[in-house]
Every structure is written in C-alpha cells, then in structure tokens.
Amino acid sequence: MRLMDPLPAAERHEVTAGDGVPLRLTRYQGGTKGPVLLVHGAGVWSGMFKLPTISENFVQYLVRHGYDTWLLDWRASTQLPLRQFSLDEAAEHDMPAAVRKLREVTKADSVQAVVHCAGSVTFFMSLAAGYLPDVRGVVASQVALHHRVPRSTLLKSRMRLPDILDVAVNYMSPDEGTQNPRLQAAFGKMVDLVYRECGSTVCHRLSFLYGRLYRHARLNTQTHERLHEQFGRCNMQTFRHLAQMARAGHAVRYDYGKEENLRRYGSAKPPDYLDPKHLKLPITFVVGDHNQTYLPTSSELTYEWLREANGAALYERKVLEGYGHLDTFMGSTASRDTYPVILQALEARA
Ligand SMILES: [Zn+2]
C-alpha cells in the first residue's frame, strides 16, 4: 500500500436548498478540469468518496488527475440532521441548489457529475424534470430511472416493510447508537442468523436494509471494520419512496395515497419521471456485474430507453467485472479497476 497523496485543503461551502434545508459542499481543488459534483447515496455521506482506509480513494484520484472536485452532502447525508423526506423534494430543491452554488463559486458555465445509487436516482429525477440544464455530462453509478432489485428486496417492498416499521421508528440504521437500543439489538440478532459471510452485525444489518452492498472480497479489512463510519441513519419516508419505486419498476413521485395524490398531482397514482426530453446529454452508466442492491438490468433499461428516445450517440454503458455496488468506490483496488472507467467518461468532456 503506497502512502496517500495529500489532498489540497478542503473548502467548505454551505448551501441552502430551495425549500430552506441546509446542505453542504466540500471542494478539493485539484485543478481546472471539471468542475465535477459527486453525489452520494442514501444512508451514507460524501465520505464514501474519500475513504481513509484504501490506498487511493476517489477524491484523491480525481485530484491527481486535475479535477476541481466537489462533494455534496444532500439531505440524505448521515452527517446532516435527520429529516423525513421524499426523493422528489431532494430532486427539486437539493440538486439544483448544489449545481447553482458550484457554478457561482467556480464561474463555470456547466458542470459534470458522478452520481451513485439513491443519489443517482434523485439526480436523474431532477434532470428529467428539467431542473438541471447546466449539467453537461453525467456518470451514473448502478441505477438511474429504472429499478430492478433482487427478489428478497422486492419481497420486503411488497410486504410494505418500511410502512410497518414506520410505526415503531422514524429511521433505520446499521449501527448501535439508535433511538431504540432493544429493537436494534433484536434486529442485530435476527440479521446475524440470516447472513453468515462475516462476523460483523453492522455489515449484516446493511445487507438486510439495502441488499448486499459490496462484495466482501473487494473490501480490505480496515474498510470492513470501519463500516460504521460510513453508514448511518436513513429516514423511513425515503425507504418508503425507494420501496415504491422498486415496486413500480421505475422512478415515480411519492405515493401519498389516492386522496392526497389527487390533490397534489391531479391523478390517483403518482406520475413517473420517464420523460427523456431533458436527458439529451452525454451519460455514461457504470454498473457492477455482481450488484445485489440494484440488479445490473436497472441501468440497462434506462440506457436502452434513452438510446431509443434520443439516439445512441450520447450514451454509453460500462460493466465493471467482478464488482458489486458500493465497492465501485470503496473497493481496495478500485483506483486500478473502476476509477479509470469513470475518468475516461469525464475526460471526454473535461
Ligand atoms: Zn461483512
């Protein structure tokens, strides 16, 4: 393991979302390429891009290649106060505010983005709704607007598990420090019986909540031992919205129930986000062929749908062999295996 290259000093920028929610941007100015916005998933924070436990993390890698790198902590971040929200709210208010702030500080005409999991879903909802005209290229990790989940996840979604748990708790978390220690201990005992691949209850709770997030062989020991530093609370409304999309098979607005849907949307069922007209920009889909959180067919469906609608030239899809979901960024050798694939897409429109 070689020593990490030091990062340039972090610049913090406070951002206020369109509806007043405080967000955070952290900038590592590695050069003049980009600027590139990194958007994390749900139940994590921007730390997923700058793990201290691997020889070169994604931020170090981008900085080494001369990128002005911006990490967004949007309202799903475990480093921000917990709140209940639908991904519609984040799509409408967080992503546009982040892009605006980034452009304001850098004076750039447009930005690139690397977006992952629920962050990618939300970013694509924002793009599809026409909120992000200043984005000139996107790398979408694992999933975008179409959702195909493993059978066990679909079963939990169909059982309305988030709705049932919502009665008892207002968030789910893999770690020990929760509002209901007895329930969390019972949750730990249950998942330890189901998942046997390692001795970590935190890891087992993650597998239950999100499907298997990484291939163990891809994580080094330190990363696996320090999972609790990367993962935290995910609010129940977001779980419910993700489950609704898993059941629908694609991105839809939050389902409030017939009466409230009629009031808000003018239709009994929530509208979807499948409008390709604002998605006429270069998009690279990257996906681990062993992904057990969102099946690889998820991004294939969005990719094929966009090619059909807007022509093949703008879109590409790269399969990361031997990778799962989050190991795309957290894997011990990701800087050799997966980062170069993402870099290639960024360089094409640097
Ligand atoms: Zn494990």
Key words describing this protein structure:
AB_hydrolase_fold; alpha/beta; Cholesterol_Oxidase; 350 residues; binds zinc ion; two-stranded antiparallel sheet
Task: Classify the secondary structure makeup into a structural class.
Answer: alpha/beta
Briefly note the CATH topology name: Rossmann fold
Q: Can you count the helices?
A: 15
CATH superfamily: Alpha/Beta hydrolase fold, catalytic domain
Residue fraction in strands? 15-25%
Determine the N-to-C terminus distance. 29 Å
- Count of DSSP E strands? 10
Gyration radius from CA atoms, angstroms: 19 Å
Could you please describe the fold and organization of this structure?
This is Cholesterol oxidase. Its cofactor is FAD. It comes from Archangium gephyra. Keywords: FAD, Flavoprotein, Oxidoreductase. The protein is of the alpha/beta class. The chain has one domain: Alpha/Beta hydrolase fold, catalytic domain (Rossmann fold), CATH 3.40.50. Helix content is 39%, strand content 16%. The strands form two sheets. Strands 1-2-4-3-5-6-9-10 form an eight-stranded mixed sheet, with helices on both faces. Helix 2 packs across helix 3 and helix 6 crosses helix 7. It is globular and about 50 Å long. Bound molecules: zinc ion.
